[in-house]
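Fold this sequence, please.
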Amino acid sequence: MKPRAEPKYLILLMVLNSPFRSHYDWGIRFPRAIGGPVKRIDKRKGGGRTILIVDDNREIRRAVSQAFLSDGFRICGEADNGRDAIRLCRELRPDIILLDLSMPIMNGLQAAPELRQIAPRTPIVLFTMYANALQPDQAAALGINLVVSKYDALSEVIEKVHALLPQPPEKAEGVSA
């Protein structure tokens, strides 16, 4: 009688049964022998731009941080409520703000107008499980540039963030700086 083989796909199945679409959403990369081919995030890189991540869930902040770090962004700060986000925005002046909707003390809809006054040109992305509940014109009235769902793949969220940020001018070939 052969010994029972250990399940190789147990971890993958546990992650795939989460509310997120795949293990790529969490920035987890399995070896080819376990999880199949490794998916690479587009290497356009954030170019060292800074992001302030605001979410009351530590695991969500960690996953989002890892995804943005892997794309070349720098995490300038993290907050778990809107009040702390306002304080950090004043201090750090991030290039982009990723803001949760539902948080204790001050939620994302309450914090967004104040964040917009502090940083009028900084894109604010509302990152929420309730993306369909907020109409785009309502979000724009509060100073929110984009509403994305937490159910979207983080690679898609990063692509949408890239679209919001002004692109640096391309260096002319043969011209040294």
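The longest helix spans residues 58-70. Residues 7-26, 28-43 have pLDDT under 50 and may be disordered.
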